[in-house]
Design a protein that fits this description.
It contains twelve helices and no strands. The chain is mainly α and 238 residues long. The protein has one domain. The longest helix is centred in the N-terminal third of the chain and has 35 residues.
Length: 238
């Protein structure tokens, strides 16, 4: 098929799946950032320590987690997550096939006006592998302790996300690893966002600079929310 065999089609698949990645991360970061707001309103510690208040939904983060379990979101999140994985795995496959086609190691080249202007544009595959590896690491801390037991009846599910935040980010080395992951994510998003928009048609001299600025803003907002969650949970756990 044209969409799988042509360079334009391949870029289009990456652009669309990349949009899934951005939406998923923005939703995920916003819900988690509610825990930071809770720490300023005094709800973080209260909801974590008092099971009755936690069960009653006292705390924005708890309400956000409840929202994530609603039927519509429960359907949407796996779809977004699947698009996320398709984006990373397909990107790795494109890089490998590109290397073989050239008979040696060359980074996947994107035909754009800024293909040589940033480190991230030349290392998107490496960043994707790092991000994918940390996703597996991340799943062992949250999904494996909350959703997995409920889905398969394995062990007892942890119902209090505040406790999981403290247990994970309360270890300074773990918080540091997550921050390194977030930095890698920033570089990947910073290049990927404007590249995605260029692929779908915003590719002229007027929009180019605007897309660069917009990509920095979007990637920075997402990553700063994630970093603030990790740092705040580390402080709360101390």
């Amino acid at each position: 098929m044209f969409i799988f065999n042509s360079s334009i089609g391949k870029k289009f698949i990456q652009a669309i799946s990349g949009a899934f990645l951005i939406i998923f991360l923005l939703l995920h970061a916003t819900i988690n950032f509610f825990s930071v707001i809770d720490s300023f309103t005094g709800k973080y510690g209260v909801a974590m320590a008092d099971e009755k208040l936690f069960s009653a939904g006292d705390g924005l983060f708890k309400l956000g987690c409840d929202f994530m379990s609603t039927p519509v979101i429960s359907i949407m999140v796996p779809v977004l997550a699947l698009g996320f994985l398709v984006h990373i795995i397909y990107g790795i496959w494109l890089t490998v096939t590109n290397i073989k086609a050239r008979g040696g190691y060359k980074r996947y080249e994107v035909a754009s006006k800024a293909k040589t202007d940033s480190w991230s544009s030349k290392n998107m595959c490496v960043l994707g592998v790092v991000i994918l590896g940390f996703i597996a690491f991340h799943l062992t801390h949250f999904w494996a302790k909350m959703q997995l037991p409920e889905m398969f009846g394995i062990g007892e599910a942890e119902n209090n996300p505040y406790l999981l935040l403290n247990a994970t980010f309360g270890q300074w080395w773990c918080a540091l690893l997550y921050i390194v992951w977030f930095v890698a994510l920033w570089f990947h998003l910073n290049h990927g966002f404007w590249s995605m928009l260029q692929t779908v048609g915003f590719n002229n001299s007027i929009w180019f600079k605007r897309l660069k600025v917009l990509s920095v803003i979007v990637s920075s907002v997402i990553v700063l929310m994630f970093v603030s969650v990790a740092v705040n949970a580390l402080i709360q756990a101390c």
